[in-house]
Request: fold
Amino acid sequence: MAGSLIGGLIADGWNPANIHVSDTDSAQLDRLAERFPVRTTNDNRTAVADADVVVLAVKPQVMEDVARGIASSVAERRPLIVSIAAGITEPTLRHWLGDDTAIVRCMPNTPAMVQSGATAMYANTRVSDEQRSIAESILRAVGIVIWVDDEAMMDAVTALSGSGPAYLFLFIEALQDAGRELGISDETAYLLALQTAFGAAKMALESEENAATLRQRVTSPGGTTERAINTLHEGGFRELVSRALHAAAERSRELSREFGSKQ
Reply:
């Protein structure tokens, strides 16, 4: 995700010389340096020493060590902190970094890796309008951005868009498998499923109509699509999707409590 953000920022015209990247993995730094002319270091404090914005793109399990390690530099410099770590709440980050820290918590999804992501963002009261604009411009480099006023909504966002690509990949898998059962070759079924998913998403993005209207337009009375849609309804498709998202949201809340309990 960090590599995707770096690529998107540079493509948007940010000066790579002003981007400092820190990682404990020297091989990963070498790979990034080969792709982008950014500055690299193994020392987090060196990376944030002169920073106006610090993006924490690390796994939740190591966030506490990273945050506490840079806390003194953050207190001195007072940069904007942008966190893309799942499950780490704003109060937890403030506990590790300092109560006066300006924090924007983000929930991007994996299509950000191809500059087609969807990111929800939440800002605490220490974040200025200018800092909100900067944070938005960073994440907008890899897709669309929406703001939420209540941090609790991040669990719902995680369930919908954060985990959402996996649901669609699963549906593509199911389409491919069913196509193969109908006699279509595996390769052809996969290509048809992929292009159908892409085309439908593109139509929805470019249309002023909502998804329900677009679905109705493709569903001729008494036709093949209607038969398939009715079968999905009879199988409890909507209810199953709802249960899945509620389960994901609850797991997100559990993870937040788990990480928060380590304060």
User: Anything to note?
Assistant: The chain has twelve helices and seven strands. The mean pLDDT is 94. The first strand starts at residue 20 and ends at 22. Residues 164-254 form a domain with the ProC C-terminal domain-like fold fold (CATH 1.10.3730.10).
